[in-house]
Design goal:
Layout (H helix, E strand, L loop, with lengths): L34 H27 L3 E5 L6 H9 L9 E8 L3 E2 L2 E8 L6 H5 L10 H5 L22 H4 L5 E7 L5 E3 L2 E2 L6 H7 L10 H4 L29 H7 L7 E8 L9 E2 L2 E8 L10 E8 L9 H28 L8
Length: 354
């Protein structure tokens, strides 16, 4: 049968197809906002936020936390002064901080170091790294990314591994934790230093160059250490050769940049396998010997030691509980105001007077 060709140039050529979607005939639901639906919603939401806020608040309060500022505390003040002098920057300096725990830190205890006013979230700082290099690709070791400038090569022109500002500013204070028993004897507190990095970081994002039959030092041959480091990357952990190079866990923890200028990073956690630490950190006197290397005066910051226990919600962070409680109060106040307005003007179904 002969069918004439459709004329696509007529007045109806751009009309949409006669379908429910294109002709906007799809079923829809438009809620009618009435006092009998709005007011219960506000009251129920306020109650839910109140329950969540109180529950999270009690959970946070069940954790224990102790923050110790050692920037200029006690004998550390001498090290702070030394680090201000550029000529003594390479001179080793150690100090001791003594403190008391009044109540048993029950359960797993985590040891953090903290920094104040250190902005790891600056864009240029965060971009100054080479993730391809830290996967262990040999070609990238000798040719770091341009983003690493001015920490891409040392003054002699030798490529730096790991390159960039993030790696160059690696936190390098070290700690030795002691418990002073009932008789005053000084017992080392066993801290587990392995397992502090994320699994995906340790096994995927950070890998050492292929060794073959060579040693780790030979794998990094032809590269230089970052300018502010005391040792090359293949000697970061002198006590454990298997924790060197790009898979050093202290290095991996540092390379995960913090979102805020005040932060803490995991240094270790308590090994509860030996007495008297099977139940946690007992009450008593403690001390921390600190190798004071990281200079805080350049960024006008502070350094802390943080001891804390954790719950299913994490550590002592009151932001989310307070946010829920404030939201609950605001919703409740708004619901009360709307109830009063409805009771006074609209309860009989009459509109508000214009």
């Amino acid at each position: 049968m002969f069918r004439p060709e459709t004329n696509n140039t007529g007045p109806h050529s751009r009309r949409p197809d006669n379908s429910a979607f294109k002709q906007q005939r799809l079923p829809a639901w438009s809620p009618m906002l009435t006092p009998h639906t709005v007011l219960p919603f506000f009251y129920c939401t306020a109650a839910i936020c109140l329950v969540l806020g109180v529950g999270l608040w009690l959970t946070v309060k069940s954790t224990q936390e102790l923050k110790l500022d050692y920037t200029t505390d006690g004998t550390c003040n001498l090290c702070f002064i030394k680090r201000q002098n550029a000529s003594e920057a390479a001179v080793k300096c150690s100090c001791t901080m003594v403190f008391t725990i009044d109540k048993l830190f029950k359960g797993d205890v985590f040891f953090y170091y903290g920094l104040r006013n250190f902005h790891q979230n600056l864009r240029r700082y965060m971009d100054s790294r080479d993730d391809t290099q830290m996967v262990g690709r040999p070609k990238q070791l000798k040719n770091p990314s341009q983003y690493c400038k001015p920490f891409r090569k040392d003054p002699k022109g030798i490529p730096i591994a790991p390159c960039g500002a993030v790696a160059n500013s690696l936190f390098n204070d070290s700690f030795r934790f002691y418990y002073h028993g009932l008789r005053g004897q000084r017992t080392p507190v066993p801290l587990l230093r392995r397992g502090i990095a994320w699994y995906t970081d340790k096994n995927v994002k950070f890998r050492n160059p292929p060794l073959g039959n060579s040693t780790l030092a030979l794998a990094f041959n032809g590269t230089a250490k970052p300018l502010y480091w005391q040792r090359p990357v293949y000697e970061l952990n002198m006590n454990n050769p298997n924790d060197n190079g790009f898979i050093n866990e202290d290095f991996i923890v540092w390379m995960r940049e913090a979102a805020f200028p005040n932060f803490k990073k995991l240094y270790g956690f308590l090994n509860r396998g030996t007495a008297p630490f099977t139940k946690g950190l007992p009450a008593g006197k403690y001390s921390v010997d600190i190798d004071y290397n990281f200079p805080p005066q350049h960024f006008k910051g502070k350094k802390l030691v943080v001891l804390t226990t954790l719950s299913w919600f994490g550590g002592q962070n009151h932001f989310l509980p307070v946010l829920y409680l404030v939201t609950s109060c605001l919703l409740l106040a708004l619901a009360v105001v709307l109830t009063v307005v409805w009771w006074k003007f609209g309860r009989n179904g009459k509109n508000l007077k214009e």
